[in-house]
Amino acid sequence: MKFATVLVVAFPCLLAPSTARPQKGSEFGPVVRAYLGYLKNEQEVVDDRVSRREISQAYYRRNSNRIRALREMAMRLARQTRNDYLPELEAVTRDEFGLLFQEQPRPESLKIGEIRQNTFRFLGTVRSNETFYVFARLDPYEQSELLSREPEKPTKVMVSLPSQDRTDKAPNRPRRVVP
User: Fold this and answer.
1) Cα separations (Å) of 130 from 61, 96, 111, 135, 172?
2) Low-confidence ranges of the chain (pLDDT < 50)
3) Which residues on adjacent β-strands are paired with residue 124?
4) Cβ neighbours of 131 (radius 10 Å)
5) What is the rounded CA–CA span in Å between residue 40 and residue 38?
6) What local confidence, expressed as pLDDT, does residue 175 receive?
7) Does an H or E element contain 77, and which?
8) What per-residue confidence (pLDDT) applies to 147?
């Protein structure tokens, strides 16, 4: 009994609630932490490749900036949604839009949340020495839902007019044009 009293008097910290700081990175769940770890590993690979002179300085800067932009957007999304989920992210510069889009949008016309080509949702821009436009790739379920909501496009039909110098007497029929 005396021993327990001595412990309580001598070591009050044993009874005090734990006020230890949370571990670094515990602000995010395991999925977000794993993605941030993946980006860290990607940066290490790029650093290693530039140190061995396998890539140019321009390539190194662009990819390091892209990794920084992806990291910033991932943390922004995780904080805003308070969810341990991240979509597949793509960060491109203005001159790289052709990598994602057949018909390249004008960056000035992009609106946050807008869906492009039923494949990408625009999330915003991140300035990391250069401006990166960050998109989330829609998952297959989101894509199929969008496609099911889209009205069918009308088929274009061309009508051929009778020609004055036609020698054959074939009837004129509307011809279907394949878009």
Assistant:
1) 10, 12, 19, 16, 58
2) 1, 3-22, 25, 154-170
3) 134
4) 13
5) 5
6) 53
7) helix 57-81
8) 80
SS (HEC) of 9-55: HHCHHHCCCCCCCCCCCCCCCHHHHHHHHHHHHHHHHHHHHHHCCCC
Query: What distance in Å separates the CA atoms of residue 11 and residue 28, rounded to the nearest whole number?
Result: 34
Q: 38-82: per-residue pLDDT in tens?
A: 999 999 999 999 999 999 999 999 999 999 999 999 999 999 999
* Residue 31: CB atoms within 10 Å: 13
Query: Can you read off the two tokens belonging to residue 78?
Result: 């995780």
Amino acid letter, residue 44: E
Q: Look at residue 64 and give its three-state secondary structure.
A: helix
What's 136's DSSP letter? E
Q: How much is the pLDDT for 162?
A: 45
Give the CB-side neighbour count of residue 174, counting CA atoms within 13 A.
7
**Type of residue at 165:** D
Helix %, strand %, coil % for the chain, to 5? 45, 15, 40
